[in-house]
Q: What sequence folds into this?
């Protein structure tokens, strides 16, 4: 007696296949559909999935995709120049909403005729930090090396851009 091999699952011993997981992540992150609304929609269609099950699947997918995230991050930070954006975002806390900072870094050398190949997609690195000061991304401070940087938002910090070496970060 023989048995055919098991179908592919994105995570070991996973309950759901890659198609469902891709749909779940696309609706959550691309169309900004909260898991509670997805849960309600599946319930109306007769599929009983708990909200915690959906949240567990999102977390498992994040763990599976972490190596890909690290490769993209290394590619972005290896650039000769970066495009940076510093944005204030609301961060939900237990009793109130705090202000946090969102830093996004994009590597794109096309406008400068750089040596890197043209990207097929936008390679970004995003960091969120609560209670951070403007223009001091903790991720960039930890891996700092002087480089040209195109900053799309003006720095509101006293003294402008802060760098380890004067003139290493250039505002737009």
A:
């Amino acid at each position: 007696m023989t048995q055919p091999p098991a179908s592919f699952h994105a995570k070991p011993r996973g309950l759901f296949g890659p198609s469902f997981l891709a749909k779940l992540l696309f609706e959550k992150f691309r169309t900004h559909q909260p898991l509670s609304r997805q849960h309600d929609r599946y319930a109306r269609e007769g599929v009983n999935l708990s909200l915690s099950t959906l949240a567990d699947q999102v977390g498992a997918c994040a763990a599976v995709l972490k190596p890909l995230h690290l490769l993209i991050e290394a590619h972005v930070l290896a650039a000769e120049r970066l495009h940076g954006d510093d944005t204030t975002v609301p961060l939900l806390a237990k009793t109130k909403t705090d202000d946090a900072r969102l830093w996004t870094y994009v590597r794109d050398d096309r406008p400068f005729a750089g040596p890197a190949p043209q990207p097929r997609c936008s390679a970004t690195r995003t960091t969120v930090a609560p209670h951070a000061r403007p223009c001091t991304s903790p991720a960039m401070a930890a891996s700092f090396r002087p480089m040209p940087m195109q900053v799309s938002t003006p720095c509101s910090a006293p003294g402008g851009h802060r760098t380890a070496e004067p003139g290493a970060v250039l505002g737009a």
